[in-house]
Design brief:
Immunoglobulin-like; four-stranded antiparallel sheet; 15 strands; 17% helix; elongated
């Protein structure tokens, strides 16, 4: 009975006593840490917290891969709970399945304890490739030919290790991969329109590496300088009519 009474009193104090309640609520957890590599050597890391972070808090994001380390500092100017982000520039990232990236996020505040969060990332799985380059459209007699080059990377990788997605003006999508000695091109039936647009984006292929994040779209436009089919008969009719009118007036004179 004695134990039950003391337990009840302790629980009551923790819930209703402001000092004890405040002490039990002075811990902030960092959650949902996620990072993206882009432009080959840049890194964005984002995270959330389980409760509102007070103003004047500081966050530090540590990047470490083998012997290379870097830090990113973030100062909170006003109360905030989500969408925290830190940006790294010009990192020396090694793209290797076995050389993981270690990201740790910790913070400090004079009134709260912000618990450290650590996570390992495969560099390929968080890589957002640059879009394909030198995208070009040309016309053959009956087809549209779309060509491009694979995106620049920090590592040497075969063209067969990429997968491409192509989307035309009508929103029709198709995916394509290429062999080592195959030219990078895509052929589509020629459309009966004066202007066409195609978009191309790229991702890693699981055949060679851990797929990452789809790149942004590369967009290319082509304006056809051809005469629509109905123009020929109309022009011919106008010319014949003019000839007949002129002949009529000449005969009268």
């Amino acid at each position: 009975m004695f134990v039950i009474v003391w337990t009840f009193l302790l629980v009551w104090l923790m819930i209703f006593h402001p000092c004890l309640a405040q002490d039990s609520n002075r811990s902030i957890e960092i959650t949902n840490v996620d990072c993206i590599i882009y432009n080959i050597s840049m890194l964005n890391c984002m995270w959330e917290t389980n409760k509102e972070v007070p103003a004047d808090s500081q966050f530090i994001v540590h990047f470490k891969q083998d012997d290379h380390a870097a830090a990113c500092h973030l100062s909170i100017q006003k109360k905030q709970k989500e969408h925290f982000k830190c940006h790294f520039q010009q990192l020396e990232i090694k793209y290797n399945e076995l050389q993981k990236i270690n990201i740790s996020v910790n913070g400090s505040n004079k009134d709260y304890k912000i618990n450290t969060y650590s996570k390992l990332f495969n560099p390929f799985s968080i890589e957002k490739l640059n879009p394909p380059v030198n995208v070009h459209l040309s016309l053959s007699e009956n087809n549209i030919i779309l060509t491009w080059e694979q995106p620049p990377t920090e590592y040497n990788i075969s063209k067969c290790c990429f997968i491409y997605e192509i989307m035309d003006s009508n929103g029709v999508r198709s995916q394509k991969t290429f062999k080592r000695n195959e030219s990078i091109s895509f052929t589509s039936p020629r459309a009966d329109t004066s202007t066409m647009a195609f978009q191309v984006r790229v991702n890693g292929r699981s055949l060679c590496r851990n797929p990452g994040i789809w790149s942004h779209w590369s967009v290319v436009y082509l304006k056809q300088n051809h005469i629509p089919q109905y123009v020929g008969p109309v022009v011919a009719s106008v010319i014949i009519t003019l000839i007949l009118v002129i002949s009529f007036f000449l005969c009268i004179r």
